[in-house]
């Protein structure tokens, strides 16, 4: 109650002070905003409360700098300004760790570019996490690196002491041409993706880029240039028919299993790649090609065989791919292989998920038989439920032909 009375007295004093200034404005060299801003500091000291508590007492935005663009953690909660600065709360005490959030919100069709200078962390536990940027795991921004939002919002989540320092500036920007670590995703029917390079030496950045196709479509991607200089740099493709693909082969066409494809990469400013993609409708066929097609759904009878040397995307190197068959509900799949020819083979118990082996093989999974690797020619294998998975590592000289039919699970 005593604290409430103190607050009330100060608020009445503030009202009186504003009235006095208005009456004497013609002879004063101070604006109302300047006087009120000065009074905020006195009010904070006398009440000995945090900036967030002051914001609960006074209307948000009432006591701000005349420019409207300089914000402080724990004093301000968010901003929709097109440009601005965010700095630590200068009334925080060095002995007490403080944790505050701040949100920058742009129009729905725009994004945010943020960069922090004068970065100084004096405590091992201090952090300023940038949540909502394309880079993964930004707990302490690298000085002068430009980070870009995934969408129209960035959240700064801090854990600081008074001795920590930074000055982050942001600008709202329109969408533009696509770059890894500057752009998050695309639904375009075709395009090019390259890394977003900056002038920060020795500090790699780790990012995703997502391609999304319409229903009943697939994405095909190939890289015409791939030059990763840093030993820790990499480029991986995910949600594709190839299994355990650690580095794209030049000019090889990689196809998404369904309607999404993701690039995952760690690069620095000495690395480079250039990849193109197109989106195409899924091929309506009963003749499927391993490493081109990722799945067959509701196909009652079909054939699966490898890509031939003359097929687009076949570069001559062996590749490790999967193919999944989905039968209608309450039906099982019966598969048999009429021919197989592998130029090198071995290790029938190969771990298909993680193997780096160069052996060529063919393996069936989700079958009643255990460890079908390789299948016995002309033997019929039956799925346990309504799906079956085929894994194979093949080169252009390798060959197999396998056919399936579906039947009732009770048959």
Automatic annotation (TrEMBL):
Keywords in alphabetical order: Signal
Top-level division of the source organism's lineage: Eukaryota
Signal peptide start-end: 1-23
Protein name (record): CUB domain-containing protein
Organism this protein belongs to: Daphnia galeata
